[in-house]
């Protein structure tokens, strides 16, 4: 029997209508900046992850020439989208500037998964390479491309369960390093992702069932082999830390652009959310850096609002969207997740600003609008954050919350960042049909 309080029941009732809905996290109001001190290791851990990525930069630049311009750092631009803002908001009701964080064009795998997924595999490779004396921490890691070093890595295996993008990121990097790689994919994964992975020599195993079953099957297969590392999207600390590095990188970009973040200049960030690890890592990183001056919202499909449900009921991973009669199905790849990550709910529950839900058709409309106004092509899931700034600043519930937070008068100074999570790997024909669908 699943039990939760009356507030939780209200949220469940709202989610059950399958209409777009904005949930504000009541826990956030109890949290103040001093809470950051409860995770003193946070900043250091995040920096350590960033340093590890730096050590790998020479190897990345060598193996993925598209990153040589950035010296082997896998990072995406932050761009202002004024045309889109005018299209969406002709009455100019949204105060502040609107930016798009373009993880859709992250090098190597074209989605937000190029952060966490790649980080976890690089960390694994580093620990194996150190153990075998292939490198020292001070070396140029590009030696890992040498055949005799790859031979050693090829004695190890990597497995992952995925709806698509995580499998793609992990598969690409893991195959490049020489690891034997197995990707367990759920039924909703796109054919082109499976084809791409197979072309890289990755073993793709398909499941009729949903995402959780693919993860469970992958976890089991890996457990039987001590030389096999399983990338666990639901619980992995490494994935989470890899994503968190985005906050450090964004901080630099904001400084470069002259965008201030402080009590008078709030930062509002809207991130598409599946199991929660990616947006959770980024939200947590931003909280380490900016405390309560960063307001992060997760965006989920109306049929799979698993993190909203987990947080609002306090049941975290112990409740699924099917428990409240939702299907968990959506055309937004990566967001069709029925059950939230428990560790993520625990880590972000105290400070996350809230969650909101989006209808699939709305994603397609926004997809075409962004293409027509800015010339930017995203995959449907990557648009989930886009309605956030508008709902927040123009709808009654949002206005009330802004007033409670003391933000109403500060919005003119605000930066709204919509996190675009994927798109550049989508084949042209598929992208064309997405755009057509939105226009209709
Ligand atoms: C994975 C993914 C997300 C969400 O990340 P989670 O860690 O699953 O919450 C969002 N958008 C896209 C395109 C993704 O692939």
Number of helices: 16
Radius of gyration, in Å, reads: 21 Å
* Total separate domains: 2
What is the makeup of the main sheet? 7 strands, mixed
- What is the level-2 CATH architecture name of the largest domain? 3-Layer(aba) Sandwich
The helix-strand sequence is HEHEHEHHEHEHEHEHEHEHHEHHHEH
Class from helix and strand fractions: alpha/beta
The CATH topology of the largest domain is given as: Rossmann fold
Q: Main sheet: which strands, in order across?
A: 1-10-9-8-11-3-2
Explain what this protein looks like in three dimensions.
By secondary structure, the chain is of the alpha/beta class. It folds into two domains: 6-42 and 65-109 and 238-439, Rossmann fold; 112-234, Rossmann fold (3-Layer(aba) Sandwich), CATH 3.40.50.1100. It is 44% helix and 13% strand. The protein contains 16 helices and eleven strands. It has helices at 6-16, 41-63, 82-88, 113-131, 147-153, 165-177, 191-199, 211-223, 237-257, 277-290, 306-313, 342-348, 360-374, 388-394, 396-404, 428-439; strands at residues 22-24, 78-80, 97-102, 157-162, 180-185, 203-206, 228-231, 267-272, 294-301, 354-358, 415-420. It has a seven-stranded mixed β-sheet, with helices on both faces. Strands 6-5-4-7 form a four-stranded parallel β-sheet, sandwiched between helices. α6 links the parallel β4 (157-162) and β5 (180-185). α9 (237-257) packs across α10. The chain is globular and about 65 Å long. The termini are far apart.
